[in-house]
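Record type: monomer structure entry
Structure origin: computed from sequence
Chain ID: A
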Amino acid sequence: MKFDEINYWSEIKLDIIKEYAQAYSTIISAQKNFNLYHIYIDAFSGAGVHYSKDKKEFVLGSPLNALNISPRFKEYHLIDLNQAKSDHLSSLTKDEKDVFVYNGDCNSILLQRVFPKCLYKNYRRALCLLDPYGLHLNWEVIKAAGEMKSIEIFLNFPVTDMNRNVFWSNPNNVDACQIDRMNAYWGDDSWRKAAYDTTCNFFGFEEKTTNQAIAYAFQKRLKDVAKFKFVPDPIPMRNSKSAIIYYLFFASQNQTGHDIIQDIFNKYRDRGVV
């Protein structure tokens, strides 16, 4: 099996998620009056470890970082489409009775098997990492998490994939299958209004807007359509040339979570950028 090779911006993302997960588990575990039961979910968990291009060594992935947090989450649900990665993660966690590893499409597994374990009325709460490699996530998952009121999410908004395959200068030339992928991630085709504008073009041609404008339109969608109460400005994850690779979103129903992630995002916003 070939392990994922990650760059420093992915390591920053891992640090952000680990720091927030530690605070989340500490706060939830302290709520003795409500006896809350909190769950960690990783929809694109990978093999559990990655190879750092910067450090030239293996580093822990998000599932193992979560497992090392104290106090522990009550359950861990880890999903990956790649059989070899799922098998490797299973081997690393085989002695953990509270860890459940799934091999398959996270879109169906989350909706049918994992999210039903996170019902608000049952005092269940969950932190869910949605970190697709590209446009491999369906809006129904995001919307379901928001409507359940019990799930907080980290979300990879993959603008590199979008720009490469969808947001072309002439949108009429984009392949239909790429349009379908974009519609599935966004939930409909309203992304076109965010991605293209004609107001500054004398001839009325569609011109692509900025990555930031598209991300902010999606931020509004997380609030208005998915019904997350708190969606702070996403943190742009940049490469060594300061180009944005993706945006990392956080969405929650909780003021405390919002305040904590604001501090964490501010701490890491410019870290590692050359």
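Annotation 1: The mean pLDDT is 93.
Annotation 2: Residues 8-29 form the longest helix (22 residues).
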